[in-house]
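Throughout this chapter, every protein is written as a compact record of paired, labelled lines. An example of such a record is reproduced below:
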Amino acid sequence: MKVLCLHGKGTSGAIFRSQTSSFRSRLADQDIEFDFLDGPFESSPAAGVDLFYDPPYYSWWQQNGSAEEVRAAVAELNEYIEENGPYDAAMMFSQGCVLGSAALLLHQEETPHLPAPFKTAIFICGGPSMSILEELGFHISAKARERDVTSRDALTKQAGNSAILTQGAARWSGLESLNGDLSEQQLRNEIECPFRIAIPTVHIYGSRDPRYAAGVHLSAISTPERRKTYNHEGGHEIPRVKEVSDTIAELVRWALAEEPTAG
């Protein structure tokens, strides 16, 4: 099986390989080839990344992820998949989730006669492209739009070098107010969907992540009967503790099953 891996902004394929090593080690009995792709644009490091990883760092677009930029990135991704695929799954983190989900949505709306870019998707700590959703007729509440902006600012602050050095893991505390104490279902209700991602999906997010609501929103635009969700209760990260690694590995196994069913 082949899994395409799309990293977050200001990191790289090599960094994403390291970030996922703990749960991937639990899949050693599976015949899986993980293809860690680098974004096309050199980038400054994501907040806090340069404390742990050396350059180079990459991103999937250069500016703020306008619909035009995301569409261009999807076109490049589709070319790569055509040349190097097919892929059984895509595994994505943060900005990689924006790219992968946009590829699926645009495929369903604009090229449904072609094979999907991958058969199943594993989204980690990332949300959808709001600009692409708007183009495709999704209705996003004003509160969700506002939170999308404020959560990005909060992530930059809480994930930065200063917060890491002075607060450590405690830097993710006290951010729940960003979501207004809303339940996951209430957050999902903030987006009205004219259609949903049709393939099986896994959604992994942390309730202490400033971008937690974005991850829940992405689960909202996936088919409920074909999705699994998991709250690792941490921040914008992939915790390497045993319980989290074991759970994510099992979710990957489910996603790669021949005919996964939600449960």
User: Anything to note?
Assistant: DSSP finds ten helices and ten strands in the chain. The chain has a mean pLDDT of 91. The radius of gyration is 17 Å.
